[in-house]
Each structure stands twice: as C-alpha cells, then as structure tokens.
Amino acid sequence: MENTKVKGFGARGWLLILVLFTSFMMFQVFTNFPLNILADCYGGDTAVAPIMSIGTFIGIVLQIIISTFIGRIKSIKRVAAVVGAIALVAAIIVAACPIEMRQDGPEVTVPYLWYAAYLVVNVCSTMYALFFLSIIAGQWFPTRKGTIMGISTIAYPVCNGVIGFFAAVAMSPLEKGNPPSAFQAFLPFIIICAIGYILFLVGITDYPEQVGAYRDNDKDLTPEIAKKMMEEEIENKKTTVWHTSHCFTSRDFWFASITCGLILMAAIGTMTRSNDIIGFFPKLDYKVIMMIVAIFGAIGSWLLGVLDTAFGTKKSMLIATALMIIAGVLGAIASTNKEGLGVLTIIAMVFIAMSMGASSNYTVSVAAQYWRREDFQSVFACLNPLSNIFNALAAVTVTFILSATNKNPVGVFIFVGILGVVGTILMVCFSASNVKKQDDKYRKEAGKPLDDALEGRK
Predict the structure, then answer these.
(1) What is the distance of C-alpha 434 from the center of its chain?
(2) How many Cα atoms sit within 13 Å of 117 on the Cβ side?
(3) What three-state secondary structure class fits 68?
(4) d(C-alpha 41, C-alpha 48), whole Å
(5) Helix, strand, or coil here: 63?
(6) Are 458 and 430 in contact (CB under 8 A)?
(7) pLDDT tens digits, residue range 69-124?
(8) CA-to-CA separations, 350 to 156, 208, 296, 304, 419, in angstroms, rounded
(9) Would you say 383 and 253 are in contact if contact means Cβ atoms under 8 Å apart?
(10) Comparing C-alpha atoms, which of 424, 400, 412, 394 is closest to residue 332?
(11) Which of 116, 114, 107, 120 lies closest to 44, judged by CA?
C-alpha cells in the first residue's frame, strides 16, 4: 500500500492551521500593539507593560493549576471555547474604549475598564492560543507538530509586518487635532479573529478521529484502528506517569523549558518595543523595516518548523539560539553608530523575527517530541507556563533596559545575545535518552509495560 501519511495536512488540518494562525494573531495584536504603539494613550509604557506582565503571570499560575488535573478534562475544546470567547470580548473592549484629547495629551475616557480588559485579554489570549489550542495541535499532529506550528506561527511576523500600517491608521487623526482612532485600526483584526474563533467552534474537535480525520493525516490508518488508538490514548492520559512533580524534578524538562522561555523572551521583548528600537536609527523607515521583518520572519517560522520535523526539535532550537546570538552581536554593533550602521539593525531584527515565529512552536514540539503522546498534555501543561514566565518578563525587562540606556537599543541587543548563549548551553546539555531513562523508571514504578516508544527521539 502506498504510504500517504506525509502528503499534506488534509482539509481539517489546514482548518486547524487557520484557527491557530488567528489565535496567535489575537495574542500578538491585542497584547503587543497597545504597548508598542498606543502606550502613551493609556498612561505610558511604564503603566501598560506591568499589566501585560501581570496578565501573563496569572495565565501561568492557571496553567500550573490545570496541569495537576489536565488528563481528567473530558474536552479541551469546550474549555478553550469559553476562554476564547472571553478573550475575544476583552479584545473588542480594548479596541473600543474611546480616547479623548486633553491639554496634557490623550487619555482614556474610562481607564479602569480599559485596564481591566487589557489584563483579561492578556490572560485569556495566552490561555486560548498558547495553551489550549496548542494542546489540540499536538493531539492532531504529534509527529508533524513542528511543521504545523511553523506555518501557524507565521502569524507573528505577519502582525509585525502590518504594525506600521496599524500605527498610521490609529495616529493619523492626530494631524487634524482629533483623538487617535484605535477602534478603526483594530477592527480588521477583530473581524479576522472572530472568524477564526467561529471556525474553531464548528470545525475543530479535541481529536481528529472525532471528525473522520487521522492523526498526522496518516491515511494508512483504518477508521477502526484510529478510533481504538484515540480511546486508548484518552484512558492512558488519566494515569500518566509524568505528573506535575515528576516534570518539575526532571533536569532535561528544565533545560528545554527554560530554553523555550529564553527564545520567547528575546523575540517578544524585542518586538513589543520595535517602534523605539528602530526609531533610534533616523534613516530607517519603520513600516518598511517591519515589512522586511515580516517576510523573513514568515520564512524563518516555516523553515525552523520544517527543520524541527525533519531533524529534531533540539537541532532546530539550537539554530534559533544561534540566530539570537548573531542578532545580538550585529544589533549591538549597529547601536554604536545610529547614522551609518542601520543595515546591521535590519539584519538583527530579521534574525530575531525568524526565531520569533518558532518561539511558540517549540513548547509544543519539545513536549510532543521527547515524551509519549499519552504524556503530552501533562508535560506541555507544565512546560508551557514555565516558559511563559520569561514571556511575562519580556516587555517589562526590555522597557527597563531602554529606559536605562536612554532608548539606545544597545542594551537590548546585548541582552538578546546573552539569552542566545545561555539557551545554546542548556540545549546542548539536554538529553532525549535521559528522558527515556526517567520514563522507564516512572513506568516501572507505576506497573506499566516498558517499550522502545521513546527510543532514538532526535
């Protein structure tokens, strides 16, 4: 029989990619744009950045709590649907809160409502996109998750590419003495995210077998075998040996989790302050640079995802950390001469964008690549919040660095380079074979059979 399991993703698979894309867009636009472009309208970056961090930290705590019983949740989709709806409503409020002009500058008419909505959208979009939907992606494509997420996370560079146009639409009324038009600028994204949410409700299930599809789009499976595998997996998740305490006492779990977090921190932190970083160089046009960043970021997201699937998550992550090191060096050099070395900044931002697209990919990939499918949910539910601690600190840290250097981005680029070096060391130390040894130990203690399912994970 011809092997058809690697031919495409299937109609449902592409639908899942579209849903993931729009969820990552929701997360990126409604957490990043208010800080990056509109912060002065809401009390300044020192007021907005802490709310982003607090929201992300709340999401982290919730994820850790959920990790203790995630195997017993009957339907991840149902929980995701509720959280996604709350995130979408909060996003609309963030966009719709009017801004009125005063003599001392723009100010939100109902600041407490805006601050509350911005906090909620940070919590719920993190939970919706980076947690629940990422779990579903791992359940649909356990061995091809790198490629799937690599395509889906193109949403990040795409959003960065259009941020200049968003800023132009939002701020153009200022030229006529009118308040910024935040809602008009946000509206296209609200529509796209709403469509993505509806598609999720009507077209995606917890497992592909529930809608007649197959894991990894493996059409060599029969419906009967596929259903049996799904049922066995659901039962095995209830008795996973990788519960929370085992995850947090595993050396390799920490190595992988922290590295994922460092990649997130470098990418998210830099891109949330891209306006200030690029604005330091007078000869650079923000809209043009962000379009370049978007194009190469999309390529990097796809390419690192493909390399993840083809050569293994560890190797792909090492490439991402190498890009961070190079970006840090080039950006730091460029910052010594803002008049003549702007081109190095462009290259540095491109390399950061390439790793950014893959940053949310790796939390899914690591958990699916080096642990069993039945253990994926419990491992990911611990790994993702740990990684997102760094994500939560990203905007505040970069904001502090820029403030300390009078908005000279040299400190930011040095910071990115250091994160790349630390991430490289940690991933070199990561051992898939050691994960298998621990898995064998825990399964033996639990009375489960040993096998070679984790043998040779690359």
Answers:
(1) 27
(2) 19
(3) coil
(4) 10
(5) helix
(6) no
(7) 887 888 999 999 999 999 999 999 999 987 765 545 544 444 688 899 999 999 99
(8) 13, 35, 6, 14, 17
(9) yes
(10) 412
(11) 107
Q: Which residues contact 202 (CB under 8 A, 6 or more apart)?
A: none
Are 91 and 193 in contact by the 8 Å Cβ rule? The answer is yes
Q: Taking a C-beta distance cutoff of 8 angstroms, is the pair 49, 176 a contact?
A: no
Phi, psi of 101 (to 5 degrees): -85, 135
Q: Measured between alpha carbons, how far is 386 from 404 in angstroms, rounded to an integer?
A: 27
**Among residues 31, 216, 16, 230, which one has the least CA distance to residue 133?**
16
Element (H, E) at 371: none
Position of tokens 């006529």? 176
Calculate the dihedral angle through the C-alpha atoms of 131, 137, 143, 148, rounding to the nearest 10 degrees.
-110
Q: How many CA atoms lie within 13 A of 57 on its CB side?
A: 10
pTM as predicted: 0.81
* Single-letter residue type at 39: A
Tokens matching residue 317: 């992550």
Length of the chain: 458
Partners of residue 108 on adjacent β-strands: 99
Closest CA to 26 of 161, 267, 195, 139: 195
CA pair distance 158, 25, nearest whole angstrom: 9
Question: Residue 180 carries which DSSP code?
Answer: P
Q: Residue 358: its pLDDT value, please?
A: 67
